[in-house]
User: Fold this.
Amino acid sequence: MNRSDKKIVLITGATSGIGQASAKLFAQNGYQLIITGRRKDRLETLSEELKKNYNTQTLTLNFDVRDKKQVDSNLKNLPPTWKNVSLLINNAGLAAGLSEIQDGDNEDWETMIDTNVKGLLYVSSCIMPTMIKNQSGHIINIGSIAGKEAYARGNVYCATKHAVEAITKSMRIDLLPHGIKVSSVCPGAAETEFSLVRFKGDTKKAKQTYQGFDPLTPEDIAETIFWVASRPPHVNINDILIMPTAQANTSHILRK
Assistant:
């Protein structure tokens, strides 16, 4: 397969977890990759690994999705051979803090809203015009069980993921006339850097989140994303909620 024949996938938040696992799986299956993230060293390491293992050339873009100027500067000025993104995976997202709402940290709230909601919109707004011009494309937004129901002390994080749910549904309606698929993949408890970030580097608290049961892995979610992306043109998977067997909902996990 020549490079010009390969589909281009853009993955935000590719430096760890679900984004990184997805990058490896799509590279393995012949996609060209644009990978973005805030940690330049990790982006470069991943790019080298993809080239070594799958002979995949990648475009690495080091920026923060919260910063609209950075997003626009990088994504509105893609090199000509990288402009025709056929698949956008809006994966960048995080939780910050786990407080009752009356004790919430305003900076944590802003970080979650700016990353999970505004960042998704900023990135999408740069990629959608080309998809509309091509009358084809696929956007997969990474949601969460927290976008389906709320849980104690999840308040603003849950709100941001409910927003992703609503944006995804609206995107699907607005982009329907342009032949663009829009999907959401919503994980339950998945052991990534999610809890480490939420607890601001406290490894003990992060590990406790997943003790006593088998959580989802980044590879589990990457496989699901790839399956959604690889359906035939006439099939769109609107929404998938994927949970560990030990988890019934946001509040009920069977721990041994």
Observations:
- The radius of gyration is 18 Å.
- Helices lie at 17-28, 40-54, 68-75, 106-134, 155-175, 194-198, 203-209, 218-229.
- Strands lie at 8-11, 32-37, 58-62, 85-90, 137-142, 180-187, 239-242.
- The longest helix spans residues 106-134.
